[in-house]
Design brief:
The protein is an alpha+beta fold and 151 residues long. It is built from two helices and six strands, in the order E-H-E-E-H-E-E-E.
Length: 151
């Protein structure tokens, strides 16, 4: 799949208004904090809504994606049900943000400063974190960093 930028012949994607999806807004603010810390100058990610092509009542009328400042995105849309739980919203947004940065900028993000490995969203107790697999030696174990606190 390629990085998407308005591939639809019908209605165009639109920027999601602040407050329209509060759980995703809060999650994106945390993810953008980490983006600014590790990739300064890239600009904040944003939410874009793309009309759904399905005309079924269980499908939302729009799908929301995490996009670069220029409107490009990659990957799956955010799970509409994730908005009901802040941790689910954060995990969904972090995963989508990572896909967009990786595929559109061709850059691994976030990278663990200790091990120089890509980190991935995960769960640690009751918080959503970036997980690092750790080093190759047993004394250099895996570790986690809270999303929004890199840098």
């Amino acid at each position: 799949m390629t990085c998407m930028n308005d591939p639809f012949p019908g209605p165009r994607p639109r920027e999601v208004r602040p407050g329209e999806h509060p759980a995703w807004d809060e999650a994106l603010a945390l993810v953008n904090r980490d983006l600014a810390a590790l990739l300064p100058g890239r600009g904040p990610l944003r939410l874009l809504a793309v009309p759904s092509d399905a005309d079924v009542e269980w499908e939302p009328p729009e799908h929301v994606y995490v996009a670069l400042p220029d409107g490009r995105w990659h990957g799956n849309h955010l799970d509409h049900a994730s908005q009901t739980d802040p941790a689910d919203a954060l995990a969904s947004v972090a995963d989508a943000a990572q896909d967009t940065v990786l595929e559109c900028l061709w850059q691994v993000w976030p990278v663990c400063v200790e091990h120089r490995l890509g980190m991935h969203p995960g769960q640690d107790d009751d918080r959503v974190v970036w997980e690092c697999a750790g080093g190759r030696e047993p004394q250099d174990p895996a570790h986690v960093r809270t999303i929004g606190e890199l840098g």
